[in-house]
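Table S2 (continued). Query chain:
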Amino acid sequence: MGHGGHGTRWTGSPLGTAGGYTERYDLAHRGRQVSELLVGRHAVLESLRARRRHYYRLWLEGDGQTAPKGSLAEIVQLAHKINLPTRHVEGGIFDRIRRAQLNPQGVALETGPFPYAELDDILSLASRKSEPLLLVLDHLEDPRNLGTLFR
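Corresponding output:
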């Protein structure tokens, strides 16, 4: 993926805080398939740990000459385990992310869309529990409110 090349059309918006970011775009080399770009060490690491999506490419900021440390090392290790193509870049996609006033923390992950469950499947699963609890939220504006609801 490039920064303006390869038929990239950006249509995203921030979906969270604390370094996580998702941006949707259409890549010419994938036809009409929509991908998401996860940005930030925590968002990328948790996605790779969960393995619920299709993964296309991992971008790491820099020239690749320095060994990654901490959470970035774990990200690289998980990417290697699933044979995820990894590209080291300077500027490019990371400059674009920063122009959106976000901190990519040196990592971006191109993924397929999140695989949401169908409502009928959720209701069926809930009906099998002795005391099911189903919480449905719409237009949650403050993520801290979700924590309050869970407590």
